[in-house]
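In this supplementary section we document a worked example of the pipeline. Step one takes a protein sequence of length 111 as its only input; no multiple sequence alignment statistics are reported here. Step two produces a three-dimensional model, which step three serialises into structure tokens for compact storage. The input and output of this example are shown verbatim.
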Amino acid sequence: MSLDSAARAGSAVERLSASEARQRLEHERGARFAQLQAVDEASGGAPQADDLQVMQKGAIERALKEIDAAFARLRQGTYGICQGCGRPIPVERLEILPYARCCVPCQQRTG
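The serialised model returned by step three reads:
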């Protein structure tokens, strides 16, 4: 069920529209690219990055992959549906973490 069709069906759960979700994801992706650029600039062009920079870049690159996966879910009409329990992810969670795959209880169970 897509975001828009769930809203039309009279779902009691507040949902983000597809355009709102896309806008949040685009903003998140832009912020992550800016972080990646800042980490690269902090290295000063040195060929060897320190461990912290390597870890920071890895975390940012993982977040970018999660954002890409969220865009795919948006195209497939499954964005905002928990991959653990199949229920809608609360809009408050998606506002904080727009690329969330799971609701908080399912995320805590999977670690």
